[in-house]
Design goal:
By secondary structure, the chain is an alpha/beta fold. The protein has one domain: Rossmann fold. It is built from 9 helices and 10 strands. It has a 6-stranded mixed β-sheet with strand order 6-7-8-3-9-10, sandwiched between helices. α3 crosses α4 and α3 packs parallel to α5. The mean pLDDT is 90.
Length: 238
Amino acid sequence: MLTAQAVSVHFAGVRAIEDVSVALAPREILGLVGPNGAGKTTMVNVLSGFQAPHAGGVTLNGTAVTGRSSDWLARHGVVRTFQAVRLFRKLTVSENVEASLVSVGSGRGAARRKAMEILSYLGISHRAHLQGDALNYGDERRVGIARALALNPAFLLLDEPAAGMNVAEAEALADLIRRIRDDFGCGILLIEHNMALITRICERMQVMASGRTIAVGTPAEVFENPVFRSAYLGTGAL
């Protein structure tokens, strides 16, 4: 399990997260949803070691890992993507994935072989020679996922992977996320505003608003929750 217990994060007096707990099990797909500014990305930053909490803690398979670096957590199976893909624009697609592997100690030859294996898995090996700045938006997103998968995650945290995608692209992404869960056996936390995608693939949803959790349950349970309907869909949905 990857868990956060009673986590709070404050920025210059702003309470970005207040007393939020999250639990992600192996092979589970958990949707983390809520309005902009709800604290979702800050929560992922805490889980992945990019943000130290001011209160509460994080455990990985029962071991406290609060304060561990993002590099340490990545080497131990907690890997994330970003809203902004952050490719190295002047490196090739293959080199972008290789860089992820070299950063955790892989040799260049092994990194090159693993990169091509992952790019083939994602169906973009024919893009391996292109520079990062030559990709369309959908392929950029897949390269971001490739860099994460190259590290063999036990827990994969995806921050708005469908942002900017059309309906067909989002449906293809949903199928890919399920396939990744099945093939890699990893737990997946998915931050996403595309509710059709969330309800299609997530076993559970956790809803945040104003830095707090307001609902947790299956998609069906959450959609019937009046607090969720008011905060996320608007008072007219009640």
